[in-house]
# Entry
Amino acid sequence: MTKRKVQVVVVSDVHLGTYGCHARELNNYLKSIVPEILVLNGDIIDIWQFSKYYWPDSHMKVVQRVFKMLANGTKVYYLTGNHDEMIRKFGEFKIGNLEIDNKLKLELDGKTAWIFHGDIFDITMKHSKWLAKLGAVGYDSLILLNRFVNFIFIAFGRGKISLSKRIKNSVKGAVKFISDFEQSATEIAIDKGFDFVVCGHIHQPEMRVYNNNKGSILYLNSGDWVENLTSLEYNNGDWKLFSYQNDFIETEERVDDKEKLIIPSIANLYEHIIRHTSNG
# Structure
């Protein structure tokens, strides 16, 4: 089966290095596509919770998959988020097909997409970063608990549930936060004259047109690879919200995909990611 060609793919909130990350599924997805442009829109490696004691081969394979795409001609933009904010010091860094930055303006068939992670709109990040980091640990623990609960539910013939989604939907503050986030992003993007605004951060996949008295804009959120396993795809003037659960079709691997990947020492990776970004 032939891999799908896609003009632009946006992936965010992967959180490599945490227990909640669905790295195997993401690697399967990346193997199934050939994008002209891949935008990694923040929180790809979770440096907040990064530990040299937890980095499975599946997580390293995602990193290697991205580098393989780079070598095959895909243009990759790495836009930093709050969980990988240490990389922000490398903003506007370019080497080959890789660019690291904090935001991106992308021209697409005569229209302009404004792409950024979105933590700038999070008041917790601005004023109580310690609380945000504590919440990240709690969220990761909730995801682990959720996997155990779903294991029990499936064993008794029941469907899966999402504890975090139930909590978000039942807490008025969480619902209002998402609404305020989307409104802030769209109003600023309309003021700046963009056609699309593309975010991540809130783990809430979405495609919606927003209007105000100054104009309208298509708001897009790529979701995450912890709960929703979603991405955004752009082809021939149209955006699509891709869902791994609903849209993924297994492809036959090429011979080179079956080759054993070399997995570097996690101690060396830890040294480069944590210490080098902390000291620079």
